[in-house]
Specification:
The chain has 292 residues and is an all-alpha fold. The protein has 13 helices and no strands.
Length: 292
Amino acid sequence: MEAKTETGAGTPRAAQRHASATLRRRLVQWVPFARGLRDLWQGWHDYRELWISTGWYDIRKRYRRSLLGPFWITISLGAFIAGLSFIYMPLVGGNAENYLPYLAFGFVAWQLISNLVIESSNVFIANGPIIQQLRAPLSIYIYQMVWRHLIILAHNSLIYVVVAVFTGLWPSWQTLLVIPGLILVCINGISLGMLLGTLCARFRDIPPIVATITQMMFLLTPILWHADQLPRRGMLVAFNPFYYLLEVIRGPLLGQAPSLLIWSVATGITLIGFIVALGFFSRFRDRVVYWL
């Protein structure tokens, strides 16, 4: 009698769990973007410690037994910025106090943006063996990529300190606007990981195309030159999405608040890109493991 009672008491709970699971499956099937949102949420909530620790491990593994470790990235980037400023400063007619911060902060921001674009193409390909063996949300590899480049950016912030001290550029309240700027860039990195990562897993010729376009956009984006130096070719700036994402980081570091137009366009690019990428990722995420 006791066994029957326990069985009878357990049956409604089992039926309730089965009904809840069925409802979740139907919601995932019919609610737009439900698969992608569930993957993003699980990767953020349930696997956060995993991608945070693996992001740190990637940096440590790359510079194992090195005396300066990740600061070699900062040193090489700083030397490259110094060489560029020495060559291009006379060409653009600037001085060290104005042009050096403009170039240095713009190049640091460009390193973050361009690396997110390029590595988004290979985020699933590079982790293919793990994806095929471990059943886990694909978003953890995207979060890991973004987190790794935020760590590199933190090391590169030493360049900001050195340039600010050298040119007498001190932080102000406008400098705090770099935080929402970084948030927008990181969201775009997640969107690119969902879109390009999935697309490139299927078509392996796309990653070199993305890398080539990114290199070309370096010259077409106002990093070495000012936007007002090409008045007859304003379309290079107006229709360049990299420019707006660059300015929401460089402007605050220069102690300048980006204009409302720049914030509006950068936010619009982020929202539209996230919606498109989420829809694409929700539609094809289950096929990624077979494409790898």
